[in-house]
Write a structure and sequence with these properties.
- The longest helix has 35 residues.
- This protein starts with 13 loop residues before the first helix and ends with a helix.
- It has two domains: 230 residues, no CATH class; 333 residues, no CATH class.
- It has 27 helices and no strands.
- Helices cover 77% and strands 0% of the residues.
- With 618 residues, the chain is mainly alpha-helical.
Length: 618
């Protein structure tokens, strides 16, 4: 039932293909080793009362290495998200030059990070972690992954026509020369390092530079312009950004999503929902919303959820003669709704960067998600029609087989929630056992998970999580620079002053507006990483419950992520549904308008978010 998972990407030179295969293998092996370390340490601690003191340090080090090798593989396949809307409107010749210049900038950032990570490994030789392990074991794998990234970036740059390579190089050198000449001729008039950093970030982001590299380059511009910070600080801060046990839940939950798709659990859940409600008015749309509710409680990754649900239900919408653009729009809106259903990765990221209880955020997000799901289902029923050809849409398979598949899949959801409530394990440890469940139980019951597909799942998960965690690492480097400039303090003072003059409600509305806009311009995680630590402390000073405010931020970010014309999530949904974005704009605006009204209700009625976590003791 589950087909093979294909790895796609631009065709590279034979030598680069060999390196890409090696990078995939290293990233997947490190992820598998991480999984074994986490599961083994939990079992030893729980069953034999023999905690493994070095387990956390090893798990974090393996994650840093896997993340950089995975990010390198994703770069080789040109999968890094960026804002292409503005540069796509430029003339072809301009676009080619800008693309070449930005490919060169990617190489510079990757090479600088790699060399300084290796240097940091050499400088920390002889130092140890808290458990006594060599500290350089974290930095050398990071540097090796960065070198692979630099090689892939150089290959992407050099594969361009010679004219574009020369023009891109000339553009970068011209900008550097202009700055050096200005600084030499009139240093007192040169903009401050902070101004140069922000200008560089804005220009490269609008120019289409991948978001992770735009964040990293902004930090580097400050370091280079200031001239007082050593380069190893950059590598140290990038490593610090992802050297945290909590973040290990991200690759594990992403892996769960891929395994569910590969072993047939995803398809069986959707089939059962189609059988149960597919024939009612608006049945397919109701199935789509309910499927997103279920999958968000399993995989944690929005794009994994969209791919799993969309690959089954968008073709079904076409068979039933529905407008595929409307179906993709509802799929995207359902992904927004599911942003606060645990174990959503963005909740984990916000909890980490803003120092909030992840379990509390998980519980706080349930009722808001239920409210938005009810609104989408209500609209689907109210404006929906019956499927025109139900025989082609409703699967004819055994109902008992579907129930078996659903029970096994829902067992995974139950395990996640019971694990949180019982305190048996942390979010990361639960995610590791969710992977084990998806492999062992899914494969034993359905017998559709081949070794080849399992390997591909690990490679996909390492690549996808590498993309996310590289953005987290780059954002940490930028956050460090912003902290040196006391930007968070200045933002906090400004927001508090605004709230005192206009009321707390103005702060909430402004925060929603910031996250919608930034969620649209940036990749969702990046928006939360940058603005979560800035806004959550201010909300606490104004008497707004942090868990409630965190849920509001995540929903606002989700609306921006799937909002036209810039929302990267909407582009992803359109690619999965094979629908031009123009066909989705009108329906998605209607759905997002409905969700925005729900967000306002959630924002100004805190009990919707806080009742459940308070009832459960968070």
């Amino acid at each position: 039932m589950a087909g093979d998972i294909a790895l796609t990407g631009p065709v590279a030179r034979p030598a680069t293909k060999v390196l890409l295969t090696l990078a995939d293998a290293v990233a997947a092996v490190l992820l598998a080793a991480d999984l074994a370390v986490v599961i083994g340490s939990v079992l030893l601690r729980s069953l034999f009362n023999a905690p493994v003191e070095w387990a956390d340090d090893v798990a974090r080090g393996l994650m840093v290495g896997s993340s950089f090798f995975g990010a390198a593989s994703a770069l080789a396949r040109a999968e890094n998200p960026g804002v292409a809307f503005f540069i796509d409107m430029a003339p072809g010749a301009v676009r080619r030059v800008v693309d070449a210049a930005e490919a060169l900038l990617v190489f510079i950032v990757a090479a600088y990070a790699a060399l300084n990570a290796l240097k940091l490994g050499w400088l920390t030789t002889g130092q140890t972690t808290g458990s006594g392990l060599p500290l350089e074991w974290t930095f050398y794998p990071m540097g090796a992954g960065g070198l692979f990234m630099a090689v892939f970036a150089a290959d992407l740059f050099l594969r361009r026509p010679t004219r574009d390579i020369a023009a891109g190089l000339a553009l970068v050198l011209a900008v550097v020369a202009l700055y050096l000449l200005w600084d030499a001729a009139s240093p007192e008039t040169v903009p401050a390092s902070r101004t140069l950093m922000l200008a560089g970030f804005a220009l490269t982001l609008v120019g289409g530079l991948p978001i992770g590299f735009a964040l990293a380059l902004a930090a580097l511009i400050y370091i280079w312009a200031e001239g007082t910070l050593p380069g190893v600080i950059f590598a140290q801060q990038m490593a610090r950004g992802i050297d945290n046990f909590v973040l290990l839940a991200i690759p594990f939950f992403i892996l769960v999503g891929y395994l569910m798709e590969a072993n047939g659990m995803s398809v069986r859940l959707i089939e059962l929902l189609q059988r149960l409600v597919g024939r009612m008015r608006g049945g397919l749309n109701v199935v789509m919303v309910m499927s997103m509710v279920l999958f968000s409680g399993i995989s944690g990754s929005k794009m994994a959820d969209v791919a799993a649900v969309g690959s089954v239900l968008i073709p079904a919408a076409r068979k039933s003669r529905q407008n595929p653009g409307n179906a993709v729009a509802l799929l995207a809106a359902s992904a927004v709704m599911a942003e606060t259903i645990p174990p959503c990765i963005n909740l984990i990221i916000l909890g980490f960067v803003a120092n909030l209880s992840i379990g509390g955020l998980f519980m706080a997000g349930l009722l808001p998600a239920g409210l938005m799901a009810a609104a989408l289902i209500g609209v689907s029923i109210l404006f929906g029609t019956k499927a025109a050809v139900t025989a082609e849409i409703i699967p004819a398979g055994s109902l008992n087989r579907m129930w078996l598949g659903a029970i096994v899949s829902l067992g995974l959801i139950a395990m996640i929630f019971i694990g949180f409530k019982s305190g048996f394990a942390t979010a990361t440890e639960i995610s590791a056992f969710a992977v084990l469940y998806a492999i062992v139980v899914g494969a034993a019951v359905f017998r559709e998970l081949s070794w080849a597909n399992a390997v591909r799942c690990f490679i996909h998960a390492a690549n996808r999580s590498g993309l996310v965690l590289f953005i987290v690492a780059a954002a940490q480097a930028l956050a460090f620079v912003l902290t040196l400039q006391q930007v968070p303090h200045a933002v906090a003072d400004m927001m508090i002053e605004l709230s005192h003059s206009s009321g707390t409600w103005m702060f909430i509305l402004l925060s929603i507006a910031i996250l919608i806009v930034m969620g649209s311009v940036l990749e969702g995680a990046a928006a939360l990483i940058i603005f979560g630590p800035l806004l959550v402390p201010v909300a606490g000073q104004l008497g707004i419950a942090p868990l409630h405010f965190g849920v509001v931020l995540v929903i606002a970010m989700g609306i921006g992520l799937f909002a036209p014309p810039l929302g990267l999530g909407l582009y992803g949904a359109c690619l999965i549904g094979n629908v031009p974005i123009e066909q989705t704009v009108k329906p998605i605006l209607g759905y997002l308008g409905l969700l925005f009204l729900c967000l306002l209700l959630i924002a100004f009625v805190p009990a919707i978010s806080l009742w459940l976590p308070h009832a459960l003791g968070y």
